């Protein structure tokens, strides 16, 4: 009988479930086949019938004979790996797949089947070698590793995992972040009195860190009763609040408070009366609401009282400054942020200052900047910067990396700032009077990588082209916000021609009066 008839006979028997007869018919077809491809085709069908009979070892021998007949044919390797997987030997199946990928051409139609089969068998082999343990990780992990994992959680996450299980609650509730800290700074909703008291019950004593923000009125009143006792116990190291009612009371502070970090929202008078008693402060943030009394002026000798201060931020919302800073000899101050405040006249004494942020500040003369600055931002400046007592020099800041400037119509022009821009890597400028001729100075900044221009309505697409041609391809990002004369196709052109990302946005307002970017 011809081989093709034997193959059809075997297929009919296979469809009827007579796998033994089908296997014999396919074997006879392979023996009588004249061509190699017909023989391999019949042997492949025979292996399928033998697998149905669960004759694993004889089927594997037939698969090996297919491989010996043609080592460049995928079917032998796929069948051999399939049989090894059925025999629960995934590592042996991996070896067959490796042999197939080594000998079979990548152009073969079944080559992707070898690749996908290899990945599945490798995953199965790993799963058998490293079986997962369905148990509590805190019950199986070493104590040191569990503590290392918990160090990456903040207070809100720690409180959330207390509810996972009794084992987690028993383990996590002993952590210092739970036993001596209250932190509501990342609360998504207002903190209720029940949640506030639940956090208090987890404390083992008086807290060392308290961040009391987003409190409801009942929780706020409860905290007002407890605050004097907390102050007198002198356990607080870090304290922050956004409520005037929870500002520290100067008369209740001990002689030598342990406070290292303080963030309060209070009147200038009350805030300074509190701060002058805390000589260990390293980080200080004061937010001052509007005060109707404007004839009260105070001089704060900060240098004599807080020599260890590293970060200072004062946000005043009054219509005019009421407090001046004197004796600014702070050798460790690295960050200074002033808003609505009178700028001290001795900034050059801050030899370690790296960050300076000024917004709507009052000035009595030109500003002398320390040369160690790395980050400088200012808004609505009316006076030129200068270095020391030299008359109108070009200010040289060799370490300045980030500069943000916002200027309105009544400010001096950008070209009159007198800043040396050679070291700047990131520049953010808002100026509606900036011309293309003035803006081309940015192309001469050798280290500039990121440039953002806001409200520069006089700039056109020609400016972007001239800037990229003159900048020697060192700029990586250009952000243009509310620049009306720019062609929308400028971004695609810059990406294709210079591989520079240009982000063009138009500022609009929604129905609620909020600014939106399109």
UniProtKB/TrEMBL annotation:
PROSITE patterns linked to this entry: FBOX
A single cellular component GO annotation: SCF ubiquitin ligase complex
Gene3D superfamilies: 1.20.1280.50, Ribonuclease Inhibitor (3.80.10.10), Tetratricopeptide repeat domain (1.25.40.10)
Domain F-box, chain residue ranges per copy: 135-181
Coiled-coil annotated spans: none
Pfam families attached to this UniProt entry: F-box (PF00646)
GO biological process, one term: SCF-dependent proteasomal ubiquitin-dependent protein catabolic process
Protein name (record): F-box domain-containing protein
Organism: Cyphellophora europaea (strain CBS 101466) (Phialophora europaea)
């Amino acid at each position: 009988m011809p081989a093709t008839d034997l193959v059809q006979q075997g297929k009919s028997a296979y469809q009827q479930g007579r796998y033994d007869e089908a296997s014999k018919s396919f074997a006879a077809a392979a023996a009588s086949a004249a061509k190699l491809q017909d023989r391999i085709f019949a042997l492949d069908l025979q292996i399928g019938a033998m697998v149905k009979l669960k004759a694993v070892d004889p089927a594997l021998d037939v698969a090996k004979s297919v491989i010996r007949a043609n080592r460049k044919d995928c079917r032998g390797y796929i069948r051999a790996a399939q049989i090894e997987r059925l025999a629960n030997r995934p590592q042996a199946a991996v070896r067959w797949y490796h042999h197939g990928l080594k000998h079979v051409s990548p152009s073969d139609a079944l080559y992707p089947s070898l690749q996908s089969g290899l990945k599945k068998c490798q995953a199965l082999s790993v799963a058998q070698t490293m079986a997962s343990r369905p148990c509590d990780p805190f019950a199986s992990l070493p104590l040191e590793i569990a503590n290392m994992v918990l160090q990456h959680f903040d207070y809100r996450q720690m409180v959330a995992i207390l509810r996972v299980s009794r084992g987690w609650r028993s383990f996590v509730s002993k952590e210092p972040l739970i036993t001596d800290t209250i932190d509501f700074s990342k609360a998504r909703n207002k903190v209720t009195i029940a949640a506030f008291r639940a956090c208090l019950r987890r404390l083992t004593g008086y807290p060392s860190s308290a961040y009391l923000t987003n409190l409801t009125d009942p929780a706020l009143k409860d905290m007002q009763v407890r605050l004097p006792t907390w102050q007198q116990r002198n356990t607080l190291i870090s304290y922050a609040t956004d409520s005037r009612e929870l500002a520290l009371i100067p008369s209740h502070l001990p002689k030598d408070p342990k406070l290292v970090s303080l963030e309060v929202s209070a009147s200038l008078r009350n805030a300074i009366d509190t701060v002058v008693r805390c000589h260990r402060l390293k980080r200080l943030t004061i937010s001052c609401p509007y005060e109707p009394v404007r004839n009260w002026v105070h001089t704060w000798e900060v240098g004599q009282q807080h020599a260890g201060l590293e970060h200072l931020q004062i946000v005043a919302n009054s219509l005019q400054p009421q407090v001046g800073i004197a004796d600014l000899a702070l050798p460790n101050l690295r960050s200074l942020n002033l808003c609505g405040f009178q700028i001290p006249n001795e900034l050059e004494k801050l030899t370690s200052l790296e960050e300076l942020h000024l917004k709507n500040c009052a000035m009595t003369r030109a500003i002398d900047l320390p040369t160690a600055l790395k980050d400088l931002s200012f808004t609505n400046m009316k006076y030129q910067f200068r270095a020391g007592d030299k008359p109108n020099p070009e200010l040289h800041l060799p370490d300045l990396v980030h500069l943000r400037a916002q200027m309105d119509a009544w400010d001096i022009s950008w070209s009159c700032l007198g800043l040396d821009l050679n070291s700047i890597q990131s520049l953010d400028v808002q100026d509606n009077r900036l011309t293309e001729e003035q803006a081309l100075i940015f192309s001469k900044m050798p280290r500039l990588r990121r440039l953002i221009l806001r409200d520069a309505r006089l700039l056109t697409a020609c400016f972007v082209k001239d800037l990229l041609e003159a900048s020697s391809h060192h700029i990586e990002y250009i952000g243009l916000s509310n620049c009306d004369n720019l062609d929308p196709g400028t971004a695609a052109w810059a990406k294709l021609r210079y591989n520079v990302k240009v982000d063009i946005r138009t500022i609009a307002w929604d129905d609620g009066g909020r600014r939106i970017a399109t």
